[in-house]
Design goal:
Strand content: over 45%
Number of strands: 11
Distance between the termini: 40 Å
Shape: globular
Order of helices and strands: EEEEEEEEEEE
Radius of gyration: 13 Å
Helix content: under 10%
Amino acid sequence: QVQVVESGGGLVQAGGSLRLSCVASGSFFRNYVMGWYRQGPGNQRELVASITSAADITNYADSVKGRFTISRGDAKNTVYLQMNSLKPEDTAVYYCYIHTPARYWGQGTQVTVSS
């Protein structure tokens, strides 16, 4: 069984920064993808960013490029999402996932950006 736990959400003013953390535990393959989706009010869940374990290849949604950075921790089952220059439209529940090869989700963490 794989467990995924996020932390780091909160309330921030527009232009501010937050860092989300995610830890995956349990038994999974050495090669995997970890990342973040988000779901804002009335919106579908969308991919924000992802990173591969094999070569740290990253992928970002166009809406966050240049503002968000995904990285892996020294403990390779840990990922971070550094979010800078936050906008009100970034307000959403952010979900961490690991794909190995099944996909496992965290419970989500709320990010609210006030204008």
